[in-house]
Design brief:
Elements: E1 3-7, E2 10-13, E3 18-25, E4 33-39, E5 46-51, E6 58-60, E7 68-73, E8 78-83, E9 92-99, E10 112-113, E11 117-122
Length: 123
């Protein structure tokens, strides 16, 4: 059974940092595109960042560019999201996702999803 399990969420003050991790099991994701998305209450799920299998292609949403960094460790089947200079508007449930090939920012084009981890940024 394919599983993506996020961790690292929590409550942080504005300006603080968090590092999210997403560990994959059940299949080898080292050749997959991995992405991070988020969903705030009452809003649609939105793209945050994505990374190709070898890290050669990385894209960020404009809202997080310069503050968030996506990375991956294929030996550990894990993708990370380092979040710095957090703002209250970053508050959301953060999800990692995987797809076979082709970097994309569209949620519906990802095949595998984690259960999400809550990030709350207080002002």
């Amino acid at each position: 059974q394919v599983q993506l399990v996020e961790s690292g969420g929590g409550l942080v003050q504005a300006g603080g940092s968090l590092r999210l991790s997403c560990a994959a099991s059940g299949r080898t994701f080292r050749s997959d595109v991995l992405g991070w998305f988020r969903q705030a209450p009452g809003k649609e799920r939105e793209f945050v960042a994505t990374i190709s299998w070898n890290g050669g292609s990385i894209y960020y949403a404009d809202s997080v560019k310069g503050r968030f960094t996506i990375s991956r460790d294929n030996a550990k089947n894990t993708v990370y999201l380092q979040m710095n200079s957090l703002k209250p508007e970053d508050t959301a449930v953060y999800y990692c996702a995987a797809r076979g090939m082709g970097v994309t920012t569209k949620p519906h084009e990802y095949n595998y999803w984690g259960q999400g981890t809550q990030v709350t940024v207080s002002s």
